[in-house]
Amino acid sequence: MSEIAGRMSIQAGAHSLEKAQGGRGTLLSGAPGVPPANVLVLGGGVVGKNAAKIAIGMGANVTIMDKSVAVLRALEDQFGSKLTTLYSNRSCLISQISISDLIIGAVLVPGAAAPKLVTRDDLSLLRSGAVIVDVAIDQGGCFETSAPTTHEHPTFIMDDIVHYCVANMPGAVARTSTLALTNATMPYVINLANKGIKRALTEDPGFLNGLSIAKGNLCSAEVAASQNRSFVSPKKVLATI
Ligand SMILES: NC(=O)c1ccc[n+]([C@@H]2O[C@H](COP(=O)([O-])OP(=O)(O)OC[C@H]3O[C@@H](n4cnc5c(N)ncnc54)[C@H](O)[C@@H]3O)[C@@H](O)[C@H]2O)c1
């Protein structure tokens, strides 16, 4: 779903940049004699990489920021000079947001709310009519001014900045999303049907890692911590099944 949301973020952002949507009236590719739009992607994980791929394909000038040098190195190896990679820190972020037409929020800190990288005060630094697509909204969002929106009303404008904050972006392309999700999950379903719960969990560590609740026990450390409930490791629960 992150692959799909990342790809969609550029489609949604390009549409929101149109004048009738409240955007700057900027075409991502520019035109002969007119420079392309500047797209800034915050977070170079699955969403960020897929956003960058589509933005580059549409002819934009793309910069991606991440906290992990390993992630930036892999992106540079993959995209070469078509993509600018930057280590994420506050001063770099400030200089980049002021020249961006479209900003994609794609950061994730596993088990925690997304860090608010762009504050309300920072919005005054952005170009009027710039667009932010906060894909990380399902984890609280990485822009302070983000609030969840729906496919029916996907955007709102605050301080002259168009905000797109749909919490379930892949739902808009349900056919593609269903096929992609089924491709990823079907092997697990077949495993479960063929082997039964205990054998499937024992033989596949990935499957065991996905165990959330069993026999009344909460087996996800992150969920248990956020809910202030006790946690029992999947391995321990497996022994009782
Ligand atoms: N809205 C939707 O429909 C939708 C769909 C899919 C995913 N998401 C969300 O998108 C977000 C990103 O998902 P993902 O699969 O790409 O995660 P990921 O773990 O693959 O990537 C997250 C990246 O953020 C980076 N990061 C963490 N803190 C950072 C910081 N301060 N500055 C810059 N980079 C930082 C990490 O190093 C990592 O590379 C998640 O919140 C996920 O839940 C939303």
Task: Tell me about this structure.
The model has no long low-confidence stretch (mean pLDDT 95). The chain is built from 8 helices and 9 strands. It has helices spanning 2-16, 46-57, 69-79, 90-97, 174-203, 205-209, 221-227, 234-240, and strands spanning 38-42, 61-66, 83-87, 102-105, 131-134, 155-158, 161-164, 213-214, 217-218. Helix 1 crosses helix 2. The longest helix has 30 residues, at 174-203. Helix 2 links the parallel strand 1 (38-42) and strand 2. Strands 3-2-1-4-5-7-6 form a 7-stranded mixed β-sheet, sandwiched between helices. A two-stranded antiparallel sheet has the order 8-9. The chain is α/β, with parallel strands linked by helices and 241 residues long. The structure holds nicotinamide-adenine-dinucleotide. Nicotinamide-adenine-dinucleotide (NAD) binds at residues 1-2, 5, 42-48, 65-68, 71, 88, 106-109, 114-115, 117, 135-139, 167-170.
Annotation field: number of helices? 8
Number of strands: 9
The secondary-structure element order is HEHEHEHEEEEHHEEHH
Structural class based on helices, strands and sheet pairing: alpha/beta
Instruction: Quote the distance from N terminus to C terminus.
Output: 31 Å
Q: Write down the Rg.
A: 20 Å
Strand order of the largest sheet: 3-2-1-4-5-7-6
Strand content: 5-15%
**How is the biggest beta sheet arranged?**
7 strands, mixed
Low-confidence stretches: none
Hetero groups: nicotinamide-adenine-dinucleotide
Residues in helices, as a percent range: 25-40%
List keywords for this structure.
241 residues; binds nicotinamide-adenine-dinucleotide; alpha/beta; 15% strand
